[in-house]
Amino acid sequence: MTNPSAAVTVIIADDHQLFAEGLLSMFAADEEIRCIGKAGSGEELLAKLIHNKPAVIILDIKMPVMDGIKVLQLIKKQYPEIKVIMLSTYADRNTIQNSIANGADGYLFKNANRQELKNAILGAIANNPSFPDLQQSMDSAKERLKLYTLTYNITRKELEIMDLIKVGHTNQQISEILFRSIFTIETHRRNIMQKLHLRSHAGLTRFLFETEF
Question: What per-residue confidence (pLDDT) applies to 70?
Answer without folding.
Answer: 92
